[in-house]
Amino acid sequence: MTAPDRRRFVPAIRHAGQVPRGVVWRAAYRRWLPTRVDELSPGYTLLMPVPSDLPVFMRLALANVTAQDPTGCAEILVIPDRPSPTMAAAFEACKAETGGRNLRLVEFPPLGRALGRLSRAKPSTYHFLQLHAGVSETATTHALLHDADLFLTDGDFLARHYQRCAAQDLACLGVSPAWDDWLREHGFEHVVATWELMFDVRWMRSFSPWRHLWHYGWLDGEWHGFDTTLYPQARTPPELCELHPGAEAGMVHFNWVIGVYRIFQRNGGRPMEDDRFTILLIRLLTDALDRGGGSAPSAVIDVPAADELARGLADPARRVTYREERTGANYAAFRARVGRLYRAPLFDDAAVEVIEDRLGPFDAAFG
């Protein structure tokens, strides 16, 4: 991509009659650290936000992306939400297991850690901090924001994704429309979701960092809450944001697994309906892939055992339940995604057998 005309990207907005929330965040993330955008190298950096207390997702994500065609990929940055020595050790073990040479662990600076704690571990806040830390370390013209709960089954996808974004001089290239219906209702159909978002780093840095954080913004005559990156995209010319045609056919995405897990942790032990089988998925993946056979260390996770989860099919007093009508309606789609997941790296016959065994009671209940 040639050096961009920054006027294409700079948001033209004036606040009127209301002071938006997040003054502390605006002050702390008013500008990016200085960099020479004209010295960014061609290629892309893969940014991998991961949950530090669910190392199985880091192991899966690294196995998944290192199996991709490496064309264009300069570096993979693993960015935990809560840096710790345990996480660092797990990263080194996964690095040895995958054999990747261009992997690097990126941790929050002290300010990010402090503000993350003050946010009470809000998932959207940590996601922004991970994005900011990754972009601050990126030395390439483009970056890819990878979701830890998205699994690629098309081995050439990331290479094509980068090439399309660069060749068409795009600011953003996504794989799914943004989840926010307000955007479509107000004429911002071009805004795309953050998962597997390939973006021009110069576009990202043309907005103040806090604009990429979840915040209330004034747009189209209204105040609205914008999730990560959605406000800058809405302020970007539509022709610079695009969806990659047919991309979703080459991936399996469970959506918002980490966010639901954090809600579960904060639920105080009260019964929680796992209506999209998110908590079950975490247990299935951990049991199947963290069996002590790999080099990555085992971990104790804050999720009930599989037999305990199965008791929630009938007992409303269990910590996790599966009793509501909407839950049963979601099972067929969940089961189909699990079946497609078996084509991703690390899923050998033994892993598949563990998952199928654990799903037996659920198949009986919802099949």
What does this structure look like?
- This protein has 367 residues and is of the alpha/beta class.
- The chain folds into two domains: 6-250, Spore Coat Polysaccharide Biosynthesis Protein SpsA, Chain A, CATH 3.90.550; 254-366, no CATH class.
- 39% of the residues lie in helices and 16% in strands.
- The strands form four sheets. Strands 3-2-1-4-7-6-10 form a seven-stranded mixed β-sheet, sandwiched between helices. A two-stranded antiparallel sheet has the order 5-11.
- It is globular and about 60 Å long.
Shape designation: globular
CATH-wise, what's the superfamily of the largest domain? Spore Coat Polysaccharide Biosynthesis Protein SpsA, Chain A
Largest sheet: 7 strands, mixed
User: Counting H and I runs of at least 4 residues, what is the number of helices?
Assistant: 15
Question: What is the CATH fold-level name of the largest domain?
Answer: Spore Coat Polysaccharide Biosynthesis Protein SpsA, Chain A
Structural class call reads alpha/beta
Strand content: 15-25%
Spatial strand arrangement across the major sheet: 3-2-1-4-7-6-10
Could you give the distance between the termini? 51 Å
Summed up, the domain count is 2
Helix content: 25-40%
Q: Taking Cα atoms only, what radius of gyration do you get, to the nearest Å?
A: 21 Å
CATH architecture of the largest domain: Alpha-Beta Complex
Q: Return the string of H and E elements.
A: HEHEHEHHEEHEHEHEEHEEHEHHEHHH
Average of pLDDT: 89
List unreliable stretches of 5+ residues. Answer: 1-21, 292-298
